Structure formats: structure tokens, C-alpha cells
């Protein structure tokens, strides 16, 4: 494509003057670059089964190998005095990289759809004690799109009361007594990956023997580090004294309070308010004309470090809604300390529409401009909720609450209390700007589908 755009066609392409009395057509140059490009992608293991379909790491390797290739082309051109057309390269690099990323994204979406249908799954045999095995199985069950399906747990069956199965996340997982060898368990379950959930019980020698035993079967072995909800950028594996040590960086909530995030929040909120001004005006008029009371509803919420502030929303309930809360507590459908009802009688007709598409939350961008909230962050809690927090849940308050967050893109009101807390704490400790951008993108999709909104 770069050749056609730059030179007007394949047959009338320019030639590359290199050495005396030697002219090479750009068709040959294009073929050579494409071949070397494929080689760079292969050397970078961009098609490794452990990487393909994983998303960020796959894209990172593609971008890295592409930039290395064109860096090499630039060096070779300079050293060997090869006069490559700059316009040709200026088209080939971004167009080729974009095409690679889009094609991988398309295949990834296809793989995700297949995994939802029960295809393209990795069958896993979990080896370890009861608690560790159940925790690992539950993690795999929650993240169905990762493609791992637990087909058996090799553990002392007496710990399960000699039951042939145990239930995790609604799934019945076969239990295989550890008296049976791992090789026999693999053959029995048909697993193609063995996941070790408790290394202290097996020991270094047994794990090494397991690698040797699984090698003829072509079965992979993975070992958990025993940590959960830690993002990849906080983990680094370093071999020390013949031991692979997993170095876990400190939680990154300080970075979530940095000047860079604050500046991004302010600029994004300002641009968002300007862009959605017509929608907000229409919503304000609808609220005012259809029910008695103010347009905005101000609710006390607890911000960073537990400092209270007034969160602004479009009023979606009748004016005296708070007075009827005690009568509805028994019908609470929310999780944990949250009060939610799918058919709350206090919600106005216009309020139902606003809530369905999260339009009632748009004025919160004003709170962002005031520095009380962030665009992305934990859910803003009520004072009565914070008073019930224990030590772990209070980590939510280490950063500013957000207009959206992991809780918003993961089911909103449909989440359990424990899952909501886990997502918020995970966000606080693993913050990154890239994660914020991905959450904003996913929020638009979640709002359009009205997932968990009521």
C-alpha cells in the first residue's frame, strides 16, 4: 500500500539507487521489508500461545518488534548510504503497525466469542491443598475470558470428606486424590496444563520431577506465586541463588494522586462538560418539568482520606425520597452495605431513563473540576458505609473516588459486595494511566448496554 500511494502503482514504481550501475525496484524492497518484518514478529514471539489473545502484552510485542525493524532500516540506510524514499517509509510504518494491531484485535475478539461458547479453552488440572486449590479455581472461574477451564483438582480427598467433587463459583469440579500420580491425573482428566497452587507442600524437588514427568506428554506446568490482584507492571521475576524470586512492587496509590492524573482529570472533565452540554440541558429541563423540586440532588459522600464532600447528580427521585428509605430497607437488593432496588417506587419516570443510561451522573464532572473526584476511581461511598468499613475496605479512601471505575465496567449494581470491594482495592493498588483509559473506553460500552444500571 505504501508503494502504491507513494509511487502511484506497482508497475511504475521508483527504483532504489544503491551501488554504481545497480538499481533495485521498490517491489523487491517491499517484499524484503515484509519478509524481515515477519521474521522480527516471529523472533519477538508475538504468536506464542502464552501471548496471543492476551491483549496488552501481545500488542506491546508487536509495536516493539515493528519499531526495532524500522530502527534497523534507518541505521542500515545511514551506514550503507541507501537512499530510501522517506514518504514510502512514513506510510509503511504507521499503516503496517495499525494493520497488525487491528487484525490481532479482530482475532482476539473472535477468540473471546469462541471462549464464551466453550471453545479455545485450556484444560487445567490444579494441584495443591484445599484452600489454595479452591482459590485458584475460583479465580479461573471468575475470569472466563482468560480461556482456562479447571477440569480437576488433585488434592487429598479426605479434606473434602471423601466427596468426588466440590463446588466453586457454581461449578462442580472433580476431586482426584493426590495418591494418584500427576501423570495419571492428567491422563484421567485430559488436562493440557498443570497448575500448582501450593508449592510448599510439594517442595522444589517434586516440582522439578513433575516437569520431567510432564515433558513427554507435552503438558505445560504453571506455578502460582501466591499473590492475587497484583497487576503485571508490579511484578518482576528475578533469578537469585538458583531460585526464581517474584518481586512485587509496592502499591501504586501514590501515583494515582500525582499531578499527571489530576491534570488529566481536569482536562477530561472540562472537555466532557463542553461536549455533553446539550444533553445536560435537556436532562435538566426534563427533570424540572416532570416533578416538583430542584434539578440537582446533592448527596454527602466520603472522598480521599475520608473527607466529606457533596456529590452532584441530576435528581432522579421524588423530593422526599430519603424519608421513605427506612420502609424499603427490607426490600434491599444491593450487596453488602449498598441499598439498591430494581423497581424503587421513589424513582420518577424521567429518573428511570436517566439512571438506565447513567445520565444522572453527568454532573459529577463538576466535582472532578473542583478536585473532589477523579474521572476514574473507586465508587464514592456514603458516610454510613464508611463507618462500617474494616481495615481492608478503608484502602478505598486512599485515592479520590471516581465518576466511573472497575465497578462500573464489571456489572455495577449486579456485583456482590466482596467483588465490589476487591475491584476497588485492586484499582487503588495497581493504578496506571493506561488502565484509566481502558476503563473509560469500557464505561461507554457498559453504559450503552445499561449493564447493572437501576
Automatic annotation (TrEMBL):
<keyword id="KW-0472">Membrane</keyword>
<dbReference type="InterPro" id="IPR003362">
    <property type="entry name" value="Bact_transf"/>
</dbReference>
<feature type="transmembrane region" description="Helical">
    <location>
        <begin position="88"/>
        <end position="107"/>
    </location>
</feature>
<keyword id="KW-1133">Transmembrane helix</keyword>
<dbReference type="InterPro" id="IPR017475">
    <property type="entry name" value="EPS_sugar_tfrase"/>
</dbReference>
<feature type="transmembrane region" description="Helical">
    <location>
        <begin position="24"/>
        <end position="44"/>
    </location>
</feature>
<protein>
    <submittedName>
        <fullName>Sugar transferase</fullName>
        <ecNumber>2.7.8.-</ecNumber>
    </submittedName>
</protein>
<feature type="transmembrane region" description="Helical">
    <location>
        <begin position="263"/>
        <end position="287"/>
    </location>
</feature>
<keyword id="KW-0812">Transmembrane</keyword>
<feature type="transmembrane region" description="Helical">
    <location>
        <begin position="65"/>
        <end position="82"/>
    </location>
</feature>
<dbReference type="GO" id="GO:0016740">
    <property type="term" value="F:transferase activity"/>
</dbReference>
<dbReference type="Pfam" id="PF02397">
    <property type="entry name" value="Bac_transf"/>
</dbReference>
<feature type="domain" description="Bacterial sugar transferase">
    <location>
        <begin position="261"/>
        <end position="448"/>
    </location>
</feature>
<dbReference type="Pfam" id="PF13727">
    <property type="entry name" value="CoA_binding_3"/>
</dbReference>
<comment type="similarity">
    <text>Belongs to the bacterial sugar transferase family.</text>
</comment>
<keyword id="KW-0808">Transferase</keyword>
Amino acid at each position: 500500500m505504501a508503494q502504491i500511494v507513494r509511487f502511484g502503482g506497482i508497475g511504475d514504481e521508483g527504483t532504489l539507487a544503491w551501488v554504481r550501475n545497480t538499481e533495485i525496484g521498490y517491489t523487491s524492497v517491499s517484499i524484503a521489508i515484509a519478509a524481515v518484518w515477519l521474521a522480527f514478529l516471529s523472533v519477538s514471539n508475538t504468536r506464542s500461545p502464552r501471548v496471543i489473545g492476551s491483549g496488552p502484552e501481545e500488542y506491546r510485542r508487536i509495536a516493539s518488534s515493528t519499531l526495532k525493524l524500522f530502527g534497523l532500516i534507518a541505521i542500515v540506510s545511514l551506514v550503507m548510504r541507501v537512499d530510501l524514499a522517506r514518504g514510502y517509509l512514513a506510510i509503511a510504518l504507521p499503516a503496517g503497525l495499525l494493520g497488525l494491531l487491528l487484525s490481532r484485535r479482530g482475532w482476539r475478539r473472535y477468540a473471546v466469542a469462541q471462549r464464551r461458547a466453550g471453545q479455545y479453552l485450556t484444560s487445567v488440572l490444579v494441584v495443591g491443598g484445599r484452600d489454595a486449590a479452591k482459590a485458584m479455581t475460583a479465580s479461573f472461574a471468575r475470569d472466563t475470558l482468560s480461556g482456562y477451564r479447571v477440569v480437576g483438582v488433585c488434592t487429598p480427598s479426605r479434606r473434602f470428606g471423601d466427596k468426588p467433587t466440590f463446588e466453586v463459583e457454581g461449578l462442580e469440579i472433580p476431586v482426584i486424590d493426590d495418591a494418584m500420580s500427576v501423570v495419571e491425573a492428567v491422563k484421567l482428566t485430559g488436562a493440557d496444563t498443570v497448575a500448582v497452587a501450593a508449592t510448599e507442600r510439594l517442595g522444589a524437588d517434586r516440582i522439578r520431577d513433575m516437569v520431567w514427568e510432564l515433558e513427554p506428554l507435552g503438558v505445560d506446568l504453571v506455578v502460582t506465586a501466591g499473590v492475587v490482584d497484583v497487576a503485571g507492571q508490579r511484578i518482576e521475576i528475578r533469578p537469585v541463588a538458583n531460585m526464581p524470586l517474584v518481586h512485587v512492587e509496592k502499591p501504586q496509590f501514590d501515583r494515582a494522586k500525582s499531578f499527571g492524573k489530576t491534570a488529566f482529570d481536569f482536562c477530561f472533565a472540562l472537555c466532557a462538560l463542553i461536549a455533553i452540554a446539550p444533553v445536560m440541558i435537556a436532562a435538566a429541563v426534563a427533570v424540572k418539568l416532570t416533578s416538583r423540586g430542584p434539578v440537582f440532588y446533592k448527596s454527602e459522600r466520603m472522598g480521599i482520606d475520608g473527607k466529606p464532600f457533596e456529590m452532584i447528580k441530576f435528581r432522579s427521585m421524588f423530593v422526599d425520597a430519603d424519608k421513605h428509605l427506612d420502609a424499603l430497607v427490607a426490600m434491599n437488593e444491593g450487596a453488602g452495605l449498598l441499598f439498591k432496588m430494581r423497581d424503587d417506587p421513589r424513582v420518577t419516570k424521567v429518573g428511570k431513563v436517566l439512571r438506565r443510561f447513567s445520565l444522572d451522573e453527568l454532573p459529577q464532572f463538576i466535582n472532578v473540576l473542583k478536585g473532589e473526584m477523579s474521572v476514574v476511581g473507586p465508587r464514592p461511598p456514603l458516610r454510613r458505609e464508611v463507618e462500617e468499613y474494616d481495615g481492608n475496605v478503608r484502602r478505598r479512601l486512599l485515592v479520590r473516588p471516581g465518576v466511573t471505575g472497575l465497578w462500573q465496567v464489571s456489572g455495577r449494581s449486579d456485583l456482590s459486595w466482596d467483588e465490589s470491594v476487591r475491584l476497588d482495592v485492586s484499582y487503588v493498588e495497581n493504578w496506571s494511566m493506561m488502565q484509566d483509559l481502558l476503563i473509560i473506553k469500557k464505561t461507554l460500552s457498559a453504559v450503552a448496554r445499561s449493564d447493572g444500571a437501576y
